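Morning!

As promised:
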Amino acid sequence: MKCRRCKAPAVIDVRRHNAAFCSDCFLHHCREQVRRAIHEFSMFGPEDRILVAVSGGKDSLALWHLLGALGYSADGLYIGLGIGGYSEESEVRTRAFATEHGLALQVISLPEDHGYDVETAAQRTRRSPCGACGLSKRHLFNRAALDGGYDVVATGHNLDDEAAVLLGNTLRWETDYLARQHPALPAGRGFARKIKPLYRLGEREMAAYCVLEKIDYQVDECPMAAGNRHLGYKETLNELERRSPGSKAAFLFGFLDRMLPLLDPAAHAEAADVHPCTECGEPTTGDVCAFCRLRERAATA
Amino acid sequence: MKCRRCKAPAVIDVRRHNAAFCSDCFLHHCREQVRRAIHEFSMFGPEDRILVAVSGGKDSLALWHLLGALGYSADGLYIGLGIGGYSEESEVRTRAFATEHGLALQVISLPEDHGYDVETAAQRTRRSPCGACGLSKRHLFNRAALDGGYDVVATGHNLDDEAAVLLGNTLRWETDYLARQHPALPAGRGFARKIKPLYRLGEREMAAYCVLEKIDYQVDECPMAAGNRHLGYKETLNELERRSPGSKAAFLFGFLDRMLPLLDPAAHAEAADVHPCTECGEPTTGDVCAFCRLRERAATA
């Protein structure tokens, strides 16, 4: 197996591209995919300040690394979720990465700064742990971006993540969620722009990137996520990919090319009835936003 | 397990509806689903003449039976595909059903009337057998409807069929195919209306309907279809259904409710550049339609 670009011995094959790469050319391939993602969706301009949502896992650390490798400067934000040893190890790796690369990192702790952890919040609000976690992270990343004067929040969602979310939303034809499944969600009243520069790279590619760049990441999956529906959709897509390589990317990219434009009106209609939360000022359709309601119930007693 | 409607002992459960039925109430349930399908999509009016595409399998025989049970009169058309014993047995069962119920049946034979069978057509045109078969059937059903003065061609596509086709088209975001995946495709220049009155009933329900109504159908699957992509999509959906009952129906019905309206413009744009085939007069975008080209190549030599 030879590298498609330079004919040296290959170290990784990317079946979707029907190609294999040596180490250097694979890293080049990853950078090119991110460059292309940023360019195709005009994710940010030269003046924009970028905040990377970092979890300590392969995707977010690789994203932070890749933005640097492409010459962009970005600060990081880590949110400690209070999930025992898993959270502790994730934070250690995140801090070590920031120190090693001389990057600015802000750390927020759900238990220390907001008085609850994900498991408690899930139990007390009868949400799934992933639901409580996602709500908390979306809110806190957005608030940190606005407070810190950042224009853009970048997250490490990769091709596998995005395709799995797309499959879930498609199986239920949640047209309002589908309309917002955009690699670059524009800023709105009270919302920073949100971008997903890794949407062209698969899970396996991100793990290989970290190994080849010697990035020490949290390998364990979050123990709260086991058996959730998102992982089921990933399995389904992996099975389809085994039967027909390239189908996962065709699913996501075909959606972005041909379906998202048809959904645009739905995306715009949705921003209509929003006003500031009476507690935190974040936009909400009710009086108090979902995050403040969750924190109220999770941190009490 | 008791019947949801009359509390008698149940003979079948329909997990999607979280219900079980006795024999009579199950048959009532099937008729109601078809009645609702016909009504919701205004499939035909009292004056319309209906031609049912009959294969001898459970779905098309049940459809023919159900239309009669609902008081509609419909003639049948069987197309012999020349697939050895499978085709022979299918024809025997179709003829027996028509005779038993005093229904008018027209029979066309691909080998005798058009000089080819499905397997030869597939080999000589380098199509899949299912591709060659589908093309032949669509053309011949439509022509028979127009020649015979029928307004509507009714096919036995059930919920499982429609959901599997939808999954395939969705995974590739074939927006033009998606726009035409309608339970009642309106008539166009040179095309009869096409309706799918069974789209609300699953495969298992159709088999049970035949058993309870003592309809003797061809139980074997077509030997040419083994391993095709459509069956793979059915497996995928069955797996999703096992994990989350009702997801198959939610996928298909959600599409019809919320996505099909967004795709309407694509459906209309598509009818633009069509004119009569120089051989058979059927609408085509080229000079000679795909069926006449297939027959020319398959029947020669």
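The longest strand of chain A covers residues 74-80.

Hope this helps with the figure draft.
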